[in-house]
Design a protein that fits this description.
This protein is of the alpha/beta class. It has 17 helices and eight strands. Strands 1, 2, 3, 4, 5, 6, 7 and 8 form an eight-stranded mixed β-sheet that branches. Helix 13 (310-333) runs antiparallel to helix 16 (383-420).
């Protein structure tokens, strides 16, 4: 499939789609939660505009949560060498002035193609922030999405007009696999509502729809606007999630309810910063002191707030010793399939790209090395042993992963016990107690 028929369905694209979706949903992420998808009408020409925090993983969030065949928009410079592959993956170029003034005329063909895409009820995806950043905050939107929407709407060729769907994406961890991911869909914004303003004054129309979309997107994400208190709010929202759920009548075991509790927690701090900055500043001073102390001990704020006991840690250590041979079997058998891609991904300078690189590399490496390793066992032993070995590979991967996580947790708990027996314990406990009390006071004072 090339540029001319990018909106058409492709057999080989669907084959790739199902395999990548399996890897994304079953293997790479622990849980993917989609909220308010009923806001997305089936028979409607839609442009999806998600926030952009995590490189390729944001695009995959859309691809595997929207029940439409999506076409993505991307900057044109990446098409110079990889155009056939990108068209196959259903990605269209957007030409900018920085690409050369002469290239802008190519956008007309792209706009014409977006008409075909939207009339086929294939969703168009544009990341309006332009580039990614691993922070829970909506950054200023670019005007590219609005220009495409207005110019396509102006053709009059879209059957029922265009709707822009704001989308919020949240990760509990940007840089590691087997994390949790949430995608929240807002209601479509009719482009026609802003078309008159755009035709009367293009700059005014672009700003109106851009600001309106930004407002709607902020309602769908955990938006920590404070730069000064970002770390404070970001850490505390996780620790107070269960308490916020119980306080607001939400289910603390629900990922969706936890997300909305986090949002409400951030809103409380927004009010506190505006009305009682001295109290927030006092809380932040205690938090920074505690974080400095914990950093020396090599564990984080959330780890310190969790209760732990020496008996449970000893039991965990015993389990680790007894199951170490199983871990070793899994680790050795995945040196090439997982450890090699992991080491390559960690060499990428931009940390937010680590997950994207690891996803693509493991997507390729696991089937290749599984087949090679099973073939080697088959040749050395027999078909039955090779079959048993093949079955053991994914099982051993799960065991090795869980063993590694238990090991990390156990080490942190032993460090915590060591800290609580040291001379730093009184200061650490005093700071934590003050942080919890001051946060509780802010919640009570600024809850609706």
């Amino acid at each position: 499939m090339g540029f001319q028929n990018i909106e058409k369905k492709s057999f080989w694209y669907r084959v790739l789609f199902y395999y990548v979706r399996f890897w994304y949903r079953v293997v790479f992420y622990r849980k993917v939660v989609v909220i308010n998808y009923d806001n997305v009408p089936e028979k409607k020409s839609l442009i999806f505009t998600p926030n952009h925090q995590n490189a390729l993983m944001d695009a995959l969030a859309m691809l595997f949560s929207v029940k439409k065949q999506l076409v993505f928009m991307a900057r044109s410079d990446i098409f110079k060498k990889f155009a056939p592959i990108l068209y196959f993956l259903k990605i269209l170029p957007v030409y900018r002035i920085r690409d050369g003034i002469d290239t802008l005329k190519k956008n007309q063909a792209v706009f014409d193609k977006t008409v075909d895409v939207l009339n086929a009820y294939n969703g168009l995806v544009i990341l309006p922030e332009g580039n990614h950043a691993g922070i829970r905050r909506l950054r200023p939107l670019k005007k590219g999405f609005a220009r495409i929407a207005f110019q396509t709407e102006e053709t009059g060729k879209i059957k029922e007009g265009i709707g822009i769907v704001p989308v919020g994406i949240d990760y509990d961890d940007y840089t590691h696999c087997r994390s949790r991911k949430i995608i929240v869909f807002g209601k479509p914004i009719p482009v026609a509502q802003f078309l008159d303003a755009y035709q009367e004054n293009p700059a005014k129309g672009l700003n109106l729809i851009k600001n309106h979309l930004a407002k709607k997107m902020k309602e769908l994400i955990i938006n920590i606007e404070s730069v000064e208190y970002y770390d404070l709010i970001n850490e505390l929202r996780v620790v107070f999630r269960k308490k916020m759920c119980l306080k607001t009548g939400r289910n603390p075991n629900s990922e969706a309810d936890g997300f909305f509790a986090d949002r409400q927690f951030v809103e409380i701090f927004d009010k506190a910063i505006a009305s009682s900055p001295e109290n927030v500043d006092s809380l932040n001073n205690d938090f920074q002191q505690l974080m400095s102390l914990l950093q020396d001990e090599k564990f984080g704020f959330k780890d310190f707030t969790h209760k732990s006991s020496a008996l449970l840690n000893i039991l965990s250590a015993l389990i680790l010793v007894l199951t170490f041979p199983l871990f070793l079997y899994g680790w050795i058998n995945h040196l090439l399939a997982f450890q090699l891609p992991l080491s390559r991904a960690r060499k990428v300078k931009d940390e937010i790209f680590h997950t994207s690189f690891l996803f693509v590399l493991t997507l390729l490496s696991f089937p290749i090395f599984y087949l090679l390793q099973v073939a080697a066992v088959w040749m050395l032993f027999s078909g039955w042993i090779a079959a048993g070995y093949f079955i053991s590979l994914p099982l051993s991967a799960v065991v090795a992963w869980k063993w590694k996580n238990l090991y990390k947790k156990t080490v942190i708990n032993f460090r915590k016990i060591k800290l609580l027996k040291s001379q730093k314990a009184p200061q650490a406990n005093k700071l934590l107690s003050r942080i919890m009390q001051k946060t509780d006071a802010l919640i009570e004072a600024f809850s609706d």
